[in-house]
Amino acid sequence: MIVLGLETATNVCGVALIGGDRVLAEFSTSGRLTHSQRLMPLVEQALREAGVDRGQLDGIAVSAGPGSFTGLRIGLATAKGLGYALERPVLPIPTLDALAFNVWAWPGLICPLLDARKDQVYAALYHGAGGAGTAGPGATGTGGSRPLRRLGGYWALGLGVLLDHLSAFNEPILFLGDAIPRYGPGIRERLGTKADFAPVSVRFPSAAGVAEIGLRLLVSGLRPEAAEARPIYVRPSEAEVKARVRARARRAATNDGSR
Amino acid sequence: MSAAGDLILAIETSCDETAAAVIERGSVIRANVVASQVDLHRRFGGVVPEIASRRHLELSIPVVKEALERAGGAPADLAAVAVTSGPGLVGALLVGVSLAKSLAFGWGKPLVGVNHLEGHIYANFLTVDEDGRPIGDGRPPEFPFLCLVVSGGHSDLIYITGHGERRALGRTRDDAAGEAFDKVARAIGLGYPGGPLLDALAREGGDPHAIELPRAYLEPGSFDFSFSGLKTAVVHHLERAALAGQEVNRADLAASFSQAVADVLVDKTVAAARATGANRVILAGGVAANSALRLTMRERAGREGLTVHFPPLKLCTDNAAMIGSAGYFRYMAGGRSGLELNADPNLALGS
Ligand SMILES: [Zn+2]
Question: Cα(A2)–Cα(A11) distance, rounded to whole angstroms?
């Protein structure tokens, strides 16, 4: 089986081809050209250099967020178009899952953090597979839809709230993701030696990781249709938030008037 | 389907309509699917770019699928995939551009990026509708002609002598005509989309000469437009009435405003026709659906001995059929886009 992986959720633009037990091609860049300009040429290049015809693809895995709204839509629209044109399944892979997958063997908790702007981070929490009593992601039972066990959902929140939550755990926590340069010092200050940071080379979402998780999903029998693939925004758009606030204010005003 | 080489699949997502179409020889509409987001944006009083982009992503594959099904064809029959690459909302454009690139690559078809304004112009080249009936007189306009593109984003006068041969004569210096319609509609208290609602109100017996409003012609010989002063005059009229405790006849105000816009557009178009020697005038864009503009343009053209060509209302507003027509003529002239094609929110109308 050959799976194409696309990663555009952060300012990394990545494309990878994974087949059998090998990464056939992987390109990653965070240069100045936009994802829109880079992504499809990289797909074409990856297929060409790996000697894979587009018809040989068994599926397309795409980093589905949370992340940059625009980046996610470039990735998802590209994956959907390829999936629809080639009549292949499109597998949306949660970006935070893919990040945690980079460091799956950590013997403690894994906390990927992506900068969500507006003083928030996108975050999730996972049990690393290296701890006592847990098996690696390749082992039986964990190689299916979730390579790592996630504790809770995908969050958009302020660092303070997240650290309040994390301080309740008595395990080492490994942080990674593009929010580390900005929030790393604050994390270190609050959690001390309980916090550790992944090396830069595995700190960012990787298209190969996305492709590998997608491959596992295909092996497990999942065949989602291209039209069904949806991004995970986590946060509503600004306009929706404002509209909700207005609606609440209106309701409050009506309630007061009726008293 | 027909022989390969004459069918184009077109995708348009530059603003708040998710659209796909299949067009034969640049002129026959085989399928024209438009999924409007108007209801979605109405509660915000206008197009919200982030919401539009999210919706485009959800709707784009179903819309493409429906267009292909209605056209009764297989992707293998397509000559190329055409897509609007600008101008428009960048996030909205990116969905269509990303989708079109991956479809073209997946099917192994050439890709043709199309300028949205060029699309509006080519709405006039669509001669057979989805049911096989002729559109208008069933003939494309003959070159050369003068084209007035008026929409929410544009007010442009362009002299066109052939496919891909054109000269920009004038453009708006502030608000586009459609933008002025939307802003005035909001000031009068109408909802979104403002243009059609304002037109409907004006036609409820509004007197186009009831309220005196300014018409900006700028310096002599200029084919540029300016509508911000007119918009301000309407707001001042409403404010003065409110201060004096007078009721404003909204239908009269809507009609007077529409007439003021129409007068300037028509005067400048006629002057540009005289200057270039063109004896045909083509209208394009959403504001070309405005009844005051249509009426005034017909009357004046009749007096001046000019032929006028309008697209049907359905093809004035944003759609992918017009992109398919423009894309076809571009494709026939050897126009191709690479997989690095990007969305350009400010894409200029080149030659
Ligand atoms: Zn338009």
Answer: 26
ipTM of the complex: 0.93
Helix axes A159-166, A180-191, angle to 10 degrees: 40
Ramachandran area for residue B112 (φ above 0: left; ψ -120 to 50: alpha; else beta): beta
Q: Of A84, A240, A243, which is closest to B103 when you measure between CB atoms?
A: A84
Q: What is the CATH number of domain A104-201?
A: 3.30.420.40
Query: Is B249 touching A (CB cutoff 8 A)?
Result: no
- Tell me how far the alpha carbon of residue B151 lies from the centroid of ligand 1, in angstroms: 6
User: Is there a common fold for A2-95+205-240 and A104-201?
Assistant: yes
Shortest Cα–Cα distance, A155 to chain B (Å): 20
CATH number at residue B198: 3.30.420.40
Cα-to-centroid distance, B163 and ligand 1 (Å): 20
CA within 13 Å, CB half, A154: 20
| A13 strand-pairing partners | A29
Q: Encode pLDDT of B52-71 as tens digits.
A: 999 999 999 999 999 999 99
Give me the residue spans of the domains in chain A.
2-95+205-240, 104-201
Fold of A2-95+205-240: Nucleotidyltransferase; domain 5 (3.30.420)
Shared-domain flag, residues B220 and B325: no
Same domain, B109 and B178: no
| Per-residue 3-state assignment (H helix, E strand, C coil) for A32-52 | CCCHHHHHHHHHHHHHHHHCC
CB contact under 8 A, B338 and A34: no
Quote the domain boundaries for residue B80: 7-136+316-332
Amino acid identity for residue B235 in this structure? V
B169 with B128, same domain: the answer is no
Q: How far is the CA of A211 from the centre of ligand 1 (A)?
A: 38
Rounded average pLDDT per 10-residue block, chain B, 351 residues: 73 96 97 91 86 96 97 94 96 98 98 96 97 94 95 91 93 92 93 90 95 93 94 95 94 97 96 95 94 96 94 93 98 97 91 51
CA of B117 to the centre of ligand 1 (A): 7
**Local structure of residue B83 (DSSP, 8 states):** E
Put simply, the answer to whether B61 touches A80 (Cβ < 8 Å) is: yes
A chain contacts of residue B339, beta-carbon cutoff 8 Å: 40-41, 43-44
Into how many domains does chain B fold? 2
**Quick one: CA torsion of B287, B288, B289, B295, rounded to 10 degrees?**
120
Per-residue pLDDT of chain A (259 residues; tens, 9 = 90+): 999 999 999 999 999 999 978 999 999 998 777 999 999 999 999 999 999 999 999 999 999 999 999 999 999 999 999 999 999 999 999 999 999 999 999 999 999 999 999 999 999 999 998 765 444 444 433 443 345 889 999 999 999 999 999 999 999 999 999 999 999 999 999 999 999 999 999 999 999 999 999 999 999 999 999 999 999 999 988 877 777 777 777 777 766 544 3
The answer to whether residues B122 and B156 belong to one domain is no
Q: Indicate whether B122 and B154 sit together in one domain.
A: no
- Contacting residues of B for A82, CB less than 8 Å apart: 102, 105-106
